[in-house]
From TrEMBL:
<keyword id="KW-0064">Aspartyl protease</keyword>
<keyword id="KW-1015">Disulfide bond</keyword>
<dbReference type="Pfam" id="PF00026">
    <property type="entry name" value="Asp"/>
</dbReference>
<keyword id="KW-0645">Protease</keyword>
<keyword id="KW-0732">Signal</keyword>
<dbReference type="GO" id="GO:0006508">
    <property type="term" value="P:proteolysis"/>
</dbReference>
<feature type="domain" description="Peptidase A1">
    <location>
        <begin position="166"/>
        <end position="482"/>
    </location>
</feature>
<feature type="region of interest" description="Disordered">
    <location>
        <begin position="120"/>
        <end position="149"/>
    </location>
</feature>
<dbReference type="InterPro" id="IPR021109">
    <property type="entry name" value="Peptidase_aspartic_dom_sf"/>
</dbReference>
<comment type="similarity">
    <text>Belongs to the peptidase A1 family.</text>
</comment>
<keyword id="KW-0378">Hydrolase</keyword>
<feature type="active site">
    <location>
        <position position="184"/>
    </location>
</feature>
<dbReference type="InterPro" id="IPR034164">
    <property type="entry name" value="Pepsin-like_dom"/>
</dbReference>
<feature type="signal peptide">
    <location>
        <begin position="1"/>
        <end position="20"/>
    </location>
</feature>
<protein>
    <recommendedName>
        <fullName>Peptidase A1 domain-containing protein</fullName>
    </recommendedName>
</protein>
<feature type="compositionally biased region" description="Polar residues">
    <location>
        <begin position="130"/>
        <end position="149"/>
    </location>
</feature>
<dbReference type="InterPro" id="IPR001461">
    <property type="entry name" value="Aspartic_peptidase_A1"/>
</dbReference>
Length: 487
């Protein structure tokens, strides 16, 4: 379909860190599979978050990050680092009430690497979770643990910070060690930091759990290199084989990657995960190997290469996030609302046709749109004309860079997939106040304008996925969605 230059074909995509996608000094535009020198940004997390960062900066960083991710997903040329830095500069200077300087050379006055945003920035926001939740998240390495899963072949999904990322614990090696792994439906490579891991900015890969011959007697190295570039960072290393256990299902000698170089957004001690598991289709894999769910299925450990997600919302305080392999967890959704639609993406992403979009119950008239459903993206990134139309209907506005809604908005948005309408909780459309001290003013919206993919192609992340049960099936090349059961 719309995927053009193989040269840009995705290197895999990743997670959008609302909390801190930053463009550091060493960042630069990234042709495909360069030498293992990484790319973009740092970011993340919650500890030691400066309290004086403006939420607008956070949002611009986020938008920049999402733009790059979408560009890679759609095979188009991503915005240059220079352009992204310019956007950050502009935003910074607008905030300061000063005109933006022209940005002749990247890396001038503004060191984006120092800007981290955290939960502090969401104070006053309607979705602000209780203090207890925040403290819990902060104390546990930025993670809020999930309850035990409610069906077989499942893992709880811990929530990073304020619905930033979703992380499960698996076991690898002999003896088996626990690894915290980010679960991403928008990429297709699985890797863990290696015992000899170095940060691309120097030094070690932080306070993580690593894998290698010293810690695992069943570890078998290979000389095959791999490299994955995400919207927010990159890793490089070699393929290996080892024992991998996922929810008690054991893969013998599974082939995956150990990263010997990680960019700071993976290597930093403040990053609350040790590796990443891509759960798109292996046609996207840079490692050219089966994904874990495909291997579980081909080894007969699960009936089909199905991955199902219950993406939880921190403010609900239910901690019921879960990923299920080989089937769906029928306790998480209303059975007669389940719809299954074709995956329309040729590359291996999960992309479904949106039949209709309704705003406050009325049809918006938008047709022919598709949604790339990505657990690794936090908000929704929509071409500006569509974003504008949606925001007008919702009572908000967009400028060229950002959409906002009144923080008091109760407007509703719903997408129809497979003939069934899925409503988004109005509060999910309110990310955080534009002015931190004015929680009833304007809020940065959960829809942001970017024309990087095809004009009809929307990148739809957790803002939507928190409102539906989401399942993918490699064998049938299909996507299923269902309404969530009442807690
Ligand atoms: C889970 O697995 C156990 C043991 O195989 C089985 O007895 C039980 O019925 C399964 N539960 C569900 C919900 O499938
Ligand atoms: C490193 O991680 C361990 C376990 O996650 C934790 O107990 C320890 O305090 C951490 N150390 C530092 C220096 O962050
Ligand atoms: C895994 O690989 C090791 C080393 O190559 C080999 O000895 C072992 O038999 C393999 N195990 C399985 C189950 O294939
Ligand atoms: C990936 O694997 C397939 C089959 O195993 C092979 O035909 C193809 O050349 C491989 N591609 C790369 C880039 O290694
Ligand atoms: C396979 O996908 C199609 C849509 O592409 C759907 O209609 C069908 O129900 C799916 N089959 C299964 C077994 O899920
Ligand atoms: C928001 O809208 C819903 C559905 O229309 C309604 O039930 C609810 O009472 C509204 N909440 C507020 C605060 O207006």
């Amino acid at each position: 379909m719309k995927f053009l230059t193989p040269a840009f074909i995705l290197v895999a995509c990743f997670l959008d860190y609302v909390l801190g996608v930053v463009i550091p000094q060493q960042a630069r535009r990234q042709p495909v599979l360069p030498t293992p020198q990484l790319i973009t940004l740092p970011l993340k997390r919650v500890q030691n978050v400066p309290k004086d960062i403006h939420p607008q900066m956070l949002m611009q960083q986020y938008i920049n990050h999402a733009s790059k991710r979408l560009a890679r997903m759609t095979g188009r040329q991503e915005p240059s680092e220079h352009q992204l830095r310019s956007e950050l500069h502009k935003r910074l200077y607008i905030l300061d009430g000063r005109p933006a300087p022209s940005l002749a050379s990247p890396g001038s006055s503004f060191n984006a690497g120092n800007t981290r945003l955290g939960l502090a920035a969401t104070q006053g926001h309607g979705k602000q979770p209780s203090k207890g939740s925040i403290n819990n998240a902060a104390e546990n390495g930025g993670l809020t643990s999930a309850n035990p899963p409610t069906t077989n072949n499942s893992l709880g999904l811990a929530i990073e910070a304020n619905d930033v990322a979703y992380i499960a614990t698996i076991q690898v090696g002999t003896p088996a060690q626990d690894f915290k792994i980010l679960m991403d439906s928008g990429s297709a490579d699985f890797w863990i930091g290696s015992e000899n891991c170095q940060s691309s900015t120097g030094g070690s890969c932080g306070n993580h759990t690593f894998l290698g011959p010293q810690s695992s007697s069943s570890f078998v190295s290979s000389n095959s290199p791999f490299q994955v570039t995400y919207g927010s960072g990159a890793v490089a290393g070699t393929l290996c084989q080892d024992q991998v256990s996922i929810a008690g299902l054991s893969l013998n000698n599974h082939t995956f990657g150990v990263a010997s170089v990680e960019s700071p957004q993976f290597s930093s001690s403040s990053v609350p995960f040790d590796g990443l598991m891509g759960l798109a289709q292996s046609t996207l894999s840079q490692q050219n190997v089966s994904t874990p769910v495909e291997s579980l299925a081909s080894n007969g450990l699960i009936p089909a290469a199905i991955t199902s997600f219950k993406i939880s919302r921190l403010s609900d305080q239910l901690n019921d996030g879960e990923v299920t392999f080989g089937g769906l967890d029928s306790s998480k959704f209303v059975a007669n609302t389940l719809v299954t639609i074709s995956n329309v993406n040729q590359q291996g992403f999960w992309e479904g046709a949106i039949d209709a979009v309704s705003i406050n119950g009325a049809d918006s008239g938008l047709t022919g749109r598709t949604a790339i459903l990505d657990t690794g993206t936090t908000v929704m990134v929509i071409p500006p004309a569509d974003a504008q139309q949606l925001m007008q209907g919702l009572g908000g506005t967009c400028d060229s860079q950002q959409c906002t809604l009144p923080c008091t908005s109760n407007s509703s948005l719903a997408f129809t997939f497979g003939g069934s309408s899925f409503a988004i909780d109005p509060s999910d459309l309110l990310i955080l106040p534009v002015q931190p001290n004015n929680p009833t003013g304007d809020c940065v919206a959960g829809i942001q304008p970017q024309q990087i993919g095809a004009a009809t192609q929307w990148l739809v992340g957790d803002v939507f996925l928190k409102n539906a049960y989401f399942s993918t099936d490699v064998g049938n090349n299909s996507i299923s969605l269902a309404k969530l059961s009442a807690p």
